[in-house]
Amino acid sequence: MSRIDEMNRILRTLQSGTPEIEAAAVISEDGLVIASALPQHIEEVRVAGMSATLLSLGTRAATELGRGALEQVLIRGARGYVVMMTAAPGTLLLVLSTQDAKLGLIFLDMKRAAAELGKVL
Amino acid sequence: MSRIDEMNRILRTLQSGTPEIEAAAVISEDGLVIASALPQHIEEVRVAGMSATLLSLGTRAATELGRGALEQVLIRGARGYVVMMTAAPGTLLLVLSTQDAKLGLIFLDMKRAAAELGKVL
After folding, report:
1. Which helix (DSSP H) or strand (DSSP E) does residue A91 occupy?
2. pTM, rounded to two decimals
């Protein structure tokens, strides 16, 4: 199995294991999508662009407000969550979930997926 | 007690009730500080500017990624959290905490403070 296939498998497992997770993607620190499991109505290019912006702003906010190196960004909207966390060095795991998601479970599943991705990347 | 005094009291209660909360501020949607309880080493102007940026980016991310209207932004760094949530309409409550903070407790205390602020604003 290629590295991309392996990453896609990890993302699909993450997505199917928690019904509240609508989309998952591995993104490089430059905001390029490495692998993704996105539903049809969510465009990859939009996710990538927004991840890059969130990453750069999150890094700036964490540093300027004395919180150290960025580890995670969470955006909660009325219709769900955007969660981004560092996976392997230089890469990020992004998840979009519905508003019914239990955050603790999402964080746990994402940490596990990030650790698995770390072995592949 | 003036509205500002009342807000300062709510912020100080929030800050003193949870030792992990280092700073708290009420910010307008334009990124102007309305009231704050900040330690000396954290500059108000820096907090205000960063809040305005986080707010505009968070709103864009939530909308573009189909998550609806923005309700909360969380940034986790190696040395702690930045949490921002809507308080009264048009205002935000921002909290800086150490890395030892229990997120669930911070969210709970912030929601209570936001509800109290809503009565004053």
Report:
1. strand A91-97
2. 0.91
> Closest residue of A to B97, CA-based?
A67
| pLDDT tens-digit series, residues B61-94 | 999 999 999 999 999 999 999 999 988 888 999 9
**Does the ipTM exceed 0.85?**
yes
Q: What is the DSSP string of chain B?
A: --HHHHHHHHHHHHHHHSTTEEEEEEEETTS-EEEEE--TTS-HHHHHHHHHHHHHHHHHHHHHTT--SEEEEEEEETTEEEEEEE-STTEEEEEEE-TT--HHHHHHHHHHHHHHHHHH-
Whether the per-residue pLDDT at A39 is higher than 90: the answer is: no
Q: Looking at this protein, which amino acid is placed at residue B117?
A: L
Residues 6+ apart with CB under 8 A from A87: A26, A93, A113, A114, A117, A118, A121
Q: Which of B65, B78, B99 sits opposite A82 (nearest CB)?
A: B65
In angstroms, the separation between the Cα of residue B28 and the nearest Cα of chain A is: 18
Look up residue A15 and give its two tokens.
Answer: 């997505």
Count the neighbouring beta carbons within 10 Å of the beta carbon of residue B94.
Answer: 27
* Collapsed DSSP state (helix, strand, coil) of residue A32: coil
What average pLDDT is seen over chain B? 92
A chain contacts of residue B99, beta-carbon cutoff 8 Å: 68
Best mutation target among A67, A85, A94, A95 (most B Cβ atoms within 10 Å) is: A67
